[in-house]
Amino acid sequence: MLQTQLALLGLSSYLLTLVSSTALTYKLVANEKACFHTDVKQQGAKVAFYFAVQSGGSFDVDYSVMGPNDRVIMENSKERQVDSVFTAKDTGEYTFCFNNEMSTFAEKMVDFEIAVENEGPSALLPSKQGTSPEQTSALEESILKVSRDLSTINRNQKYFRTRENRNFSTVKSTESRIFNFSVVESGLMVCMAGLQVFIVRFFFQGARK
Prior knowledge:
The protein is an alpha+beta fold. The protein is 44% helix and 32% strand. It contains two helices and eight strands, in the order αββββββββα. It is elongated.
């Protein structure tokens, strides 16, 4: 039992070294372009890029992903949410940029995550004394399955959080419009009442003359 736990711990540590991840929330002010960088040390590594605009303006932003030598990998404008995975053909520094230069006053709150997965050979998996290759393989598959499930849950939570923020912003905007409309309507009613009083008084004053 102890040997199995040690093997599981060693395998978990090994798998965690295969994936480097960065998750941040950044406040993108108006007319700002912000870039973030990650270093890919292995050719053919999988790079996962996710972002979602949580608040601000129309919940959209321009973005671009560039590889070494400023090679454009992907770019688009006015995107609300992107979840993409690409293969790094070259080693070196990869740049992920968000551009809010289209907005003159709106600030954007952007959640994003950059993950680099280096697939190592299974022969390098740590093994403990008394642990068979079949047990190690079963542990590896179980951990990878748990990792995939946790990643799916994490992405679903981010998706629902983004939906919640956008719906709350819509409700808040609708509430503000209803309030403003009510104020304008009340002002118009007061003006109409005053105008009616003025007209009635004007007729009575004309009749007395």
